[in-house]
Amino acid sequence: MKIIYSQTFNAYHNIACEEYLLDNFEDDIFYLYQNSPSIIVGRKQNTLAEINFDYIREKQIPVVRRLSGGGAVYHDVGNLNFCFIIRNVSKAENGFERYTLPILEVLQSLGVEAKLEGRNDLTIEGKKFSGNAKYFKENDLLQHGTILYMSKLNEISKVLNVNPAKYKDKAVKSVQSRVTNISSHMPKPMNLSDFTNLIIAHIKTLYPEATDYMLTDKDNIAINRLVDKKYKTWEWNHGKTPAYNYSKSLQTKGGNLEVAMFVKNGVIEQLKFYGDFFSFKDIDTYEMEFIGVPHEYEKLKDKLEAKPAELFFENINSADLLEIFF
User: Fold this and answer.
1) Among 292, 302, 237, CA closest to 267
2) Domain 244-324 is of which CATH architecture?
3) CB atoms within 10 A of CB 207
4) Separation of alpha carbons 271 and 314, rounded Å
5) How many CB atoms sit inside 10 A of residue 30's CB?
6) Would the pTM count as exceeding 0.70?
7) How do residues 287-323 score in pLDDT, each as one tens digit?
8) pLDDT tens figures, 243-262
9) Helices 217-226, 11-24: crossing angle, 10 deg rounding
């Protein structure tokens, strides 16, 4: 087994690294990393339906889709992420219990009563500190999880607070749970670095053949190529979103305005404006301008600059439309 502790807080790089390690190594791997503030969404989730778009855009928080299923999670540097990549896994070895147990054993050795609850959550006193997910590639297993150690918990409700009335789809939904930081339950204070070292030391007792591995320049060049090709692209992070219906209403100076859209592969396929507004031109014609445009802020902003709302609506401007689209 190779043990790898990432030297970057870049979420795009760290999530891409999981796929790179899965595809390009033959060894079992234990991979640890921390990300600067970011949102990581599950493989089958509607990205926009999981995030507080306005807050994310204001704070410039990256949103990255991962390989595995499950719900959206918030990462920051107070959250440690662990990933097992195990080759040729049998059915008896692919449960969440096996690869969350090392984390529980470390905590229990420190006097923290943590346990696995439900299918894939680790909890302390009924509060969640770790969500886990997995992905299979043929017979190889990638199982990863969060470890809330000293994360900014108040940020979770801000970044993942979305109005459920806006989206109707069959995508996987995140289930918000009561969460806690491990540091709040430690009998004696310990910083995250020391806690991480304890986990690594315990893995080495469980896998005596384990050796430390530092990603090479060649590895990092390949990972960065994967970031540019996939993990930093709109097509992966938003275009892979399942089809959904979206609607939102807004009270403007020109009256009430509502938009209803059907979006597939992240692209607007149908769109209608409703409301008690007045228009200068045929709104049906204007609606057609948005067909085929990605449901993406910059693309819609460009469209509105080319075809301003003011040319069609009375007392409704492009800023109103941009607000109603998200």
Assistant:
1) 292
2) 2-Layer Sandwich (3.30)
3) 15
4) 19
5) 24
6) yes
7) 999 999 999 999 999 999 999 999 999 999 999 999 9
8) 999 999 999 999 999 999 99
9) 110
